[in-house]
Amino acid sequence: MAPPPFEARIVDDPDRYVLWFRRSSPYIYSHRGRTFVILVEGEAVTRDDFAHLVGDIALLHALGIRVVVVHGARPQIDRRLAEAGETTRYEGDLRVTPAAHLPWVMEAVGRVRALWEGRLSMGMTHPPLAGARLRVAGGNYVVARPVGVRGGVDFEHTGEVRRVDGEAIARALDEGQVVLISPLGYSPTGEVFNLRAEEVATATAVALKADKYLCLAATSLPCDEAGRPIVQMGLEAATRWLEADLGTADTRRHLRAALYACRHGVQRAHLLDQRRDGALLLELFTHEGVGTLVTGEPLENIRRAAVDDIGGILSLIEPLETAGVLVRRSRERLEQEIDHFLLAEVDGRIIACAALYPDFEHRVGELACLAVDPEFRRQGWADRLLRTILRRARETGLERLFVLTTQAEHWFRERGFQPARVEDLPRQRQALYNWQRNSKVFIKDLN
Ligand SMILES: CC(C)(COP(=O)(O)OP(=O)(O)OC[C@H]1O[C@@H](n2cnc3c(N)ncnc32)[C@H](O)[C@@H]1OP(=O)(O)O)[C@@H](O)C(=O)NCCC(=O)NCCS
Predict the structure, then answer these.
(1) Nearest CA to ligand 1 atom 39
(2) Cβ atoms within 10 A of the Cβ of 175, count?
(3) What is the tens place of the pLDDT at every residue in 107-166?
(4) pTM recorded for the entire structure
(5) 54 CA distance to ligand 1 centroid (A)?
(6) CA of 417 to the centre of ligand 1 (A)
(7) Ordered structural domains, the chain, with CATH
(8) Measuring CA to CA, which residue among 410, 347, 338 is closest to residue 376?
(9) How would you classify residue 231: left for phi > 0, otherwise alpha for psi between -120 and 50, otherwise beta?
């Protein structure tokens, strides 16, 4: 059965809507005035929910984000060439574009661009942004050169990016326009080149020193060996994943592009599955997101704990246990429970930890022993650990996460945990509740 329209669902549950909106406000503040380059692969325009995606992009613009969209057109070019009775030749993942194919390529790209411009114009006359006028800018922003002859193959009108006119794009953004860039480039000699959309998008993100590069791919996200989507990757982890030759060629192509962007000054790259309706908003306005985040920030230092880490964990938590902030855990107990622990490391030193105890029967988990070395506080380490724990909890099918705390009530409340009663805990956990300690209980709904 089709889901009810969005408006109907809001009316059904206004409290939830208000709560969601309030929780989005930190993200609204932090994204305002930032520059995001969004690559959308060509498949998106053929989907039933294309209007939703364009509406979401228009919403980002309305929230003060400087938006550049680079659209792909690969399936449309393939189809147009097939209709014209032409066969497409690929060398690796790069199309060969003979001069005779160029008119079909330009036609296919032009059609996709028109669909985007049409939708972007329409998004403004329909809810939720009715009445606002959105202007779309485009132009000869991308200077290209031919790929040339490689391995004896002349790629002809397949080009690569030589330069992106970041200043011109920035001016259009300053004027409040959304910039839409097509995967075509022009040489100073006046020739037209067919470009890879991901190369155009990452080169644009680098030229603009964008805060984020977001890729709405028509392919699955990078997964670990057990087949679970990887929620975040540092540059080293991403490089290792590529070297291990995992995933599909398309997933690897997108991860390579994300890695390139991060290595050239873009802070964060997000890989998203465009088949998920609302992926862009979920990634940008919820704590946990729904994609794979690639970043040069020190995320790779978050990992599962092993028995060898017990000494480091103890030296981190013992002072907090002595001060009564954390419950005392013996070395033996830590040894038994070590698999539940995640930790953060800087230069080989354990500087933060947290544990997740799942109760699969009741689909609820307990977050415990969250601690950050005082020297490393207020640098977002606790937030990173929480984000990882929330994702893990969801991936394993948990529906609620609770925490018992004596001194960090507000830290949890500000992150969407709601006050709860001891009776709200699973019965076994209630039996272990220490009434003398009198910790407060907080629960977060993971749905
Ligand atoms: C709570 C704790 C994990 C936060 O670590 P952190 O890495 O500094 O946290 P982040 O950098 O992600 O967040 C910093 C923000 O949280 C706030 N914060 C830190 N500790 C807080 C607390 N106990 N209560 C409320 N807010 C707190 C900071 O003021 C800062 O916000 P601001 O910049 O707006 O002022 C850390 O203070 C700690 O180890 N406390 C002792 C152990 C504990 O109480 N654990 C929770 C029980 S399981």
Answers:
(1) 371
(2) 9
(3) 999 999 999 999 998 855 555 556 667 899 999 999 999 999 999 999 999 999 999 999
(4) 0.68
(5) 38
(6) 14
(7) 6-295 (3.40.1160.10), 302-445 (3.40.630.30)
(8) 347
(9) alpha
